[in-house]
Amino acid sequence: MILPNKNYSNLKDSYLFYNIAQKVKAYSDKNPGKKLYRMGIGDVSLPLCDAVTEALHEAVCDQAKKESFHGYMPECGAPFLRDAIAKHYNKRGVNIASDEVFVSSGASDELGDILDLFDKSSPALVIEPAYPAYVDANVMAGREIVHLASGRENGFLPEPDDSIKADIIYICSPNNPTGAVFGRDKLKKWVDFANKNGAVILFDAAYEAFIEDTELPHSIFELDGARTCAIEICSLSKTAGFTGTRLGYTVIPKELKRDGMSFNEMWVRNRTTKTNGVSYIIQKGGAAVFTDEGQRQIHRNIGIYKNNAKVLMSALDKTGLWYCGGKNAPYIWLKCPDNMDSWTFFDYLLNEIQVVGTPGEGFGACGEGYFRFSTFASPEDTAEAARRLCSLLEK
């Protein structure tokens, strides 16, 4: 008899963004003439920058000539891209070697795959509200999950204490969905906790490029002690518009070892067994991101999204609603008005002003009563959504 993985029966009936898509589709079917202002899912609206598209075109031409054609790529990443990423870290004062960088098809894929490195008996700590895939990936694996709630009282940035018993610790900073960012002191407490208890931090740095405060760390490896307790998972999706192009990278220091085993060496073995690498064309496009011109161009686009955040924050300031995020992150996390639950507020915005956001309940129980806006829409749609929000909520 073929037995299914019965852990799947422990998942919620459907994924958060699937539920949103179904509600939006039902509304659009009933109201075909209504334009929607999508501030929900974190997909980008600006195209790839010129430096990237030029590199992609060059790579396609390379594949058309025998002398420059590439077949299978190295499973852990092309040397030219691993070197470029390591040098990017080095320029910021973070000592990372190229063979500590692993190229992936995106952070979402890697956040699930990386669990292969841990024994099934290792509990995972998820700080909530949290990106739903952290929980779902561990449910699928049959792993015990420790839920650590956060809230306004700690700025959605909780600190560790000795009551926490977990071997894997998820930290997302800047955070999705709250937009909160760990400062050095608070993040160092988690590093010290992990080293003291033999835990490993999975540091999701997908949104680090949106940090503008110079005192906030972009990488966990800016902190002493992180090289013996952390894996950093990064993405070019929001940084450089690769949501549809798919490219990310993971940093695993050679010092990270448990029970005599090297996580770096284990991941080499995992990737060489389970993948055939990311395509040459996509990696060439990714390498262009880390050139001086590429950095100028992607930060010009990021500046547009950050201005969207300012527009939305200005609107929320007028309504008097409490919120956090926005300044150093592409997400704004707000308290629903009049003690509405988050799905009721979702329906209210959709039906009254055709603005689509994300209900906080979908990010964990302590997200109930809160709501997330993404800043990745076009400036025109963002401005109109902000106007409609003011008109509705100032009432």
Written overview of the protein:
By secondary structure, the chain is α/β, with parallel strands linked by helices. The chain folds into two domains: 130 residues, Aspartate Aminotransferase, domain 1 (Alpha-Beta Complex); 242 residues, Type I PLP-dependent aspartate aminotransferase-like (Major domain) (Aspartate Aminotransferase, domain 2, 3-Layer(aba) Sandwich), CATH 3.40.640.10. Helix content is 38%, strand content 14%. The strands form four sheets. Strands 2-8-7-6-5-3-4 form a seven-stranded mixed β-sheet, with helices on both faces. It has a four-stranded antiparallel β-sheet with strand order 11-12-15-14. It is globular and about 60 Å long. The protein starts with 15 loop residues before the first helix and ends with a helix.
What is this structure, in a nutshell?
This protein has 395 residues and is of the alpha/beta class.
Topology:
Blueprint (H helix, E strand, L loop, with lengths): L15 H15 L6 E2 L11 H13 L16 H13 L9 E4 L2 H7 L10 E5 L3 H9 L4 E5 L18 E5 L11 H14 L2 E5 L25 E6 L1 H4 L7 E4 L5 E2 L2 E2 H12 L5 H10 L2 H28 L3 E3 L5 E5 L6 H12 L1 E2 L1 E2 L10 E5 L4 H15 L2
Parallel strand pairs: 1-13, 3-4, 3-5, 5-6, 6-7
Antiparallel strand pairs: 2-8, 7-8, 9-10, 11-12, 12-15, 14-15
Helix pairs in contact: 2-9, 3-9, 10-12
Poorly predicted regions are none
What profile does the largest beta sheet have?
7 strands, mixed
What name is given to the CATH topology of the largest domain? Aspartate Aminotransferase, domain 2
Q: What's the CATH architecture of the largest domain?
A: 3-Layer(aba) Sandwich
